[in-house]
Amino acid sequence: ALVSLRQLLDHAAEHGYGVPAFNVNNLEQMRAIMEAADRTGSPVIVQASAGARAYAGAPFLRHLMLAALEEFPHLPLVMHQDHGTSPAICQRAIQLGFSSVMMDGSLSEDGKTPTSYDYNVSTTRQVVAFAHACGVSVEGELGVLGSLETGMAGEEDGVGAVGKLDHSQMLTDPEEAAHFVEATEVDALAIAIGTSHGAYKFSQPPTGETLAIERIRQIHARLPNTHLVMHGSSSVPQEWLKLINEYGGEIPETWGVPVAEIVEGIRYGVRKVNIDTDLRLAATGAIRRAFGQNPAEFDPRKYLKQSVDAMRSVCIARFEAFGAAGQA
Ligand code: G3H
Ligand code: 13P
Ligand code: ZN
User: Which CDD domains does the UniProt entry name for this protein (predicted)?
Assistant: First the structure.
């Protein structure tokens, strides 16, 4: 059944688990996510980005989500719009039937420049006013997402390219977060705690201190009733990188956010965990392997089925690790 983000995350907070929010662009991702949720009995958040809309078109994305609800009516599902860059975009998503929208006022409408705090508050607040009137939840964002290692915000996904920043500029300030939530009344808040979008998060293997856990704890202490959201939460599994490169890929060495650290973040108040890159890597690895092992095959259903199996295994692992399994 369709539920709002607030409904779903209130349950997650009450029972102390986190929910992976997977990006969807096509049928194969949607099937993989839903089959994984069905097998593990997990609640679902599926999210559509601007890139997804450009690729599939808003009506196809909407109907993919509606098809998921129709085939799996027993699972609670949030239709979420990822990284809305203006109130107009959020309004359109609500009109399409989305039960949750992200107003990302931390960046300008073209997604390129960090905005002022006042701009962020006023755009986010506008969205909350009309979204709440429709029973739709709102996620806001405060802080600049980027790698603490390089001081660079992720560029590869087109979400942000803001140049070099120091650590203090890159972590969400707990006091500012408290004011932001009071001023906007958002249901969920995306915070900058050391993650960045895309596959190239860290150039060194993790040391166990990838996330600013203490910062998460401080923000949660100030905002116990606001659900914290972690963007850029892909773990960039080394086994998928290896498989891609074994079958002709050329992905340089890179590391993501270890699942164990995300689980720790969930202990301190993170409830929504955004994952896109890991499913892209799994799909690519599976398809490269299928092409390598069976070059005579030309029925796309055969190799795309391999990608569904690969993505499903990643989704199952995340539902289980975050404690969402069995909560639907
Ligand atoms: O936040 C970024 C997501 O990974 C979506 O990326 O705009 O390429 O679909 P995209
Ligand atoms: P990843 O690139 O780490 O998968 O993050 C996705 C995301 O935050 C979508 O909003
Ligand atoms: Zn994001």
Answer: TBP_aldolase_IIB
